[in-house]
Amino acid sequence: MTSSTEPAVSIRGLSKSYGKTEVLHGIDLEIARGATTCLIGPSGSGKSTLLRCIAFLEEATGGTIHVNGRPLGFEERPDGKRVRLGPQRIREVRSGIGMVFQQFNLWPHMTALGNVTEALVTVRRLSRKNAEERGMAQLRHVGLEARAHHYPSELSGGQQQRVAIARALALEPKILLFDEPTASLDPELTGEVLNVMRKLGEEGMTMVVVTHEIGFAATVGQRIAFLDHGRILLNGTPGEVFSDPRHPRLTQFLETYLDRGAAMLLKPA
Ligand SMILES: Nc1ncnc2c1ncn2[C@@H]1O[C@H](COP(=O)(O)OP(=O)(O)OP(=O)(O)O)[C@@H](O)[C@H]1O
């Protein structure tokens, strides 16, 4: 049983090394249930690595992650030893986590509906009819029912990303992770993707979003974690993190990345 006040994801002392280089240094972070948490920070600060550890696409080198109270991938035994869990326990916890990538990663030879239903049929073992019903419902959710039978090459980048979101939603995740979901899109196409994400947030989906869209983070993120050099320097509500940016690294970062929307928002009256 999970209570509504328990964090959806609880990260303790998480570290990650590539070879001898440690890129995450003892991250502690709680991801609030039913809220949108944005991970922001300079290029190379470790945002994507942290997100990929939460998706278990990368295995952390130290520390633990609990998802809805259950250990993901590794657990710490009472004697302090960190052990890798068996594949079944890993699969069970991972199945509650959905991921949306910067590059959409759609199958080019499948229609939008085919992309959304593929894993439902092959992994979740739904009948084709049930999978298509669920797939159409999710395409409707992202406003793309009319494009269900189009191939990715016939869709705009924004539409392809919305198909990727529908595909993740069809697997009924408890937590949805986004890795720079608008970074590959022309500026005029980012709005439609951000609007879908905003709607999911309003519906109570737990989301973690790596983004350079500071305006989106400031307006839609309920929690903001600012990473720098593999550490979380600031963590709080947008008001707490943005309204008084006295931290020199944050100020420097905002000056570099601030988009127009955020500049308006953060400008003193
Ligand atoms: N597969 C890998 N092998 C070796 N080093 C890696 C690997 N992936 C990431 N790194 C390094 O880890 C550090 C953190 O990278 P990461 O991609 O997590 O940063 P980021 O904050 O998401 O950056 P960006 O905003 O540019 O995407 C960087 O120094 C990067 O070079």
From TrEMBL:
The keyword Transport applies. This is ATP-binding protein. It is found in: Cell membrane. InterPro entries: AAA+_ATPase, ABC_ATPase_HisP-typ, ABC_transporter-like_ATP-bd, ABC_transporter-like_CS, MetN_ABC_transporter-like, P-loop_NTPase. Transmembrane segments: none annotated. Coiled coil: none annotated. The keyword Cell membrane applies. It is a peripheral membrane protein. GO terms for molecular function: ABC-type amino acid transporter activity; ATP binding; ATP hydrolysis activity. Its main location: membrane. It comes from Aureimonas endophytica. Keywords: Amino-acid transport, ATP-binding, Cell membrane, Membrane, Nucleotide-binding, Transport. Residues 9-254 form the ABC transporter domain. One of its GO terms (cellular component) is plasma membrane. PROSITE patterns: ABC_TRANSPORTER_1 (PS00211), ABC_TRANSPORTER_2 (PS50893). It comes from the Bacteria. Belongs to the ABC transporter superfamily. SMART domains: AAA.
